[in-house]
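Hi R.,

Here's the chain you asked about this morning:
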Amino acid sequence: MGFFERLFGWIFRRTPQPQPPPPAATRTERPPPGPAHPTPPPSPAPPPPAASPAPPEVSAPAPNPSPPDPSPPPLPDPPPEEKPAERPKPKEIHLERQPIGSRVRHFATIDGTRFQIGDEQSFDSPLLKKRCRGIYILKPREGFTTFEPDQWRARYGVWADMIAVTSDVEGGRDIAALNSYDGAGFTFGLMQWAAHVPDANLVLLLRKMLALPNAPAYFPDLTLNAEGRICQLAGDGKLIQLERSGRGLEPTAPLRRYLNEDDVEVDERELLTAAKLLHWVRFDPEGQRTLIEFAFEDYKHNVALRAKTFPLDGRLDVEVMLIADIYHHGRGATAARGREAGRQRAIKAALASSDPTEGLVSIGEGDAKYIDNRILGLRREIDEALQAGVLGHHVYDAATHDFRLKT
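And here is the predicted structure, written out as tokens:
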């Protein structure tokens, strides 16, 4: 071996060489000592949630309204003031006097329509005990409006036929019959209601008519006061009461003078009154309806009054109608019979007789020619109504103040 070889070998042996690591020993690892109840190992972390589908697009909600104002809302503006209904203008009336033979006939023109008011007539009035003169209408002529019970029977029953009989002998069933010559001052309408009776008849009808909206067109100077009584408007704006309650002729004297200024002669005031009332109920539907409805109301009221004096319960319609007619006409109460007491005795005797209808219709017969004429008309109308079957089949029920079929 050469020198260099021995030198490098010596150096190589003197330099430590890296040794490979020993093989690892296999052993069981023991846990370090700890508490009596060892802490369980932590649960494994849950898996991440599955991705949920994206929610549908929703429009953004409207912003919340402002919180309510605790103060009360402002009051609304007041409604515009309603203008009062215009007062109807007074009707322009043109009067015309036309001699016809020995008679004098009067006409009027209102709203371009010419119509008859009536003929002049004189009469010895037993009420005023003097000869009076006024106007009247004999029978309905062309253009007049008559009461037809067929048109009202469905609503009022047999009352319509009872009214038809009395209205026929009063004025030929003319709804605008009038008379200003017999001392009552003025009578008007289907039943010729008279102006001289306080709180009844024409006084009540005029109160109803004056409450209608069109009243100022016909009677601009008449009105009703707070008590519902008829008053005249004076020039200074004050009210002059024309009627009041009471007995005799005095309570209605101012109203009668307003309607008919002169009992002895035909005057312009009664002609104007006649023209206004005739036109009102013939050409104004509301005026006509008011008059006819008043006829039924007034007739029923008067029958109910008579039922307090006479035994009307169960009585035939024709008998009740005759008693109502006696009082409406005023016959049967002469001084010779003791006035009202005598009339009541005559009616009760007729009701107790074997033929009450004949006994009632003959009351007052022979007292005066005009009464005899009325009785003659009543007999004719009653016979026609009985033959037609519109009377004689109903009896009065005092409990209901109405009629029921006779059984």
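One quick note: The two ends are 175 Å apart (CA to CA).

Cheers,
M.
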